[in-house]
Amino acid sequence: MENRNTETIKMMYLEDRPYEKCEQYGAEHLTDVELLAVLLRTGTKGENSLRLAQKILHPPFGSEGLLSIPQWSMEQLLKIKGIGKVKSIQILCLAELARRMAKAEAALGLDFSSPDSIARYYMEDLRHKKREVMKLLLLNTRSRLISEMDVSTGTINSTLVSPRELFVEALQKNAVSIILLHNHPSGDPTPSKEDLLTTRRVRESGALIGIELLDHIIIGDNCYFSLREKGFFSQESANR
After folding, report:
1. Gap between the Cα atoms of 88 and 222, Å rounded
2. What value does the CA radius of gyration of the chain take, rounded to a whole number of Å?
3. 214 Cβ contact partners less than 8 Å away, ≥ 6 residues apart
4. d(C-alpha 141, C-alpha 115), whole Å
5. pLDDT digit string, tens, across residues 159-197
6. Is the Cβ–Cβ distance between 121 and 149 less than 8 Å?
7. What is the pTM of this model?
8. 48 close to 7: Cβ distance less than 8 angstroms
């Protein structure tokens, strides 16, 4: 019997071939492995595209299945036997396309007065990052976005940000309010002591120059924590 690992797509039964299965039943009936195999198009010597896709999405390479793909770099992909430059680029473009689609959908309901709306919009930008990244969102008098920027990239579990740097940017752009946004690579958005301290310092500094910190939102893995929503700002005001 032909070894399944070396069996070519053409040697498979028609109903098992990803292209034919998609044509007959629709893309929604394909497994994750089959979808990736269709995008890879071809395999390599000794492994068909299905086997190659399975290798990419399963341990030890794809320990988190589809969620592993956005975390991979070109260098990491090239270490997988059967993945060359062309297939690496295909996989990286697939991840980027998925990120942009998710962001485009979230943009339809983007409302800078809603923590949930903000978190959904920036979720795909931040949740796969391996280091903490702090974003600064600058808003005008109508709470519309003037500009956004990365103001700090930290270590694996912390980011350093200076209130002075934030407000220099805010003043240059004539912002009347700001929102801080950063990720936790662990996937748990619960604020650390450093997060609370940074929020307090920025909020107090902003109050002195008339630029309000509207919120500090922490992004986890498909979840978020809004310090304003959780009452942190109210508690701070009550303690003054």
Report:
1. 26
2. 23
3. 112, 139, 143, 177, 178, 179, 228
4. 18
5. 777 888 899 999 999 999 999 999 999 999 999 999 999
6. no
7. 0.73
8. yes
